[in-house]
Please model this.
Amino acid sequence: MADLQVAPWTLVIPVKRTAIAKSRLAPAYPQHRPELARAFAVDTTAAALRSPLVHTVLVVTDDPQVGPDVTAAGARVVPDLPAAGLNEALLHGATVAAAEFPGNGIAALSADLPALRPAELTAVLAVCTAARSFVVDEPGTGTTLLAAAPGVPLDPRFGVGSALAHQASGAVPIEVAGIESVRRDVDTAADLAHAVQLGVGPATAEVLSLVLGAATGTEGLAC
Model:
């Protein structure tokens, strides 16, 4: 790996209540959509914690099941006190991170990266040398990671067209080859199929095994 003599990172991962998360997966996975959303968050968190550049992972969530799961993986849960949406949750998490770890950079990371590889995340964080940097998602319009150097406001602008919004705000797009797992967030069944090709984490694989069992008639009705 290139230069690792950079400030360690505190990652902020926002997780919506899984009962309402990943609605675009519902047509393909009506029975297992909440479990998949929870598994994505757990696999993302566990992979992020294995990066040598990640000091701490703060998961901003009010989901009663995600909290214990990511805590068991080694993350710390920050309650979503604003309860006002994604960017507000990230701002809250970034405020906590800056107060507790002022020497660290802060990176907002999508919770929907079930194929995330620690080495690829490390490669990204190692080149986040601008004041603010971001990774464009696989479709090319969204953002999977937004990083701010120590002392720099995160200023998240997630939502539709967030890649352009982040670039317009002065953040620099990361241009690194071989970071497919960092770019592959999952919103649809097609996205999940691509993530499976890359290799998903154990929590997601376990839920997908239940889906397969259901589809073959070994677990009641098919998904």
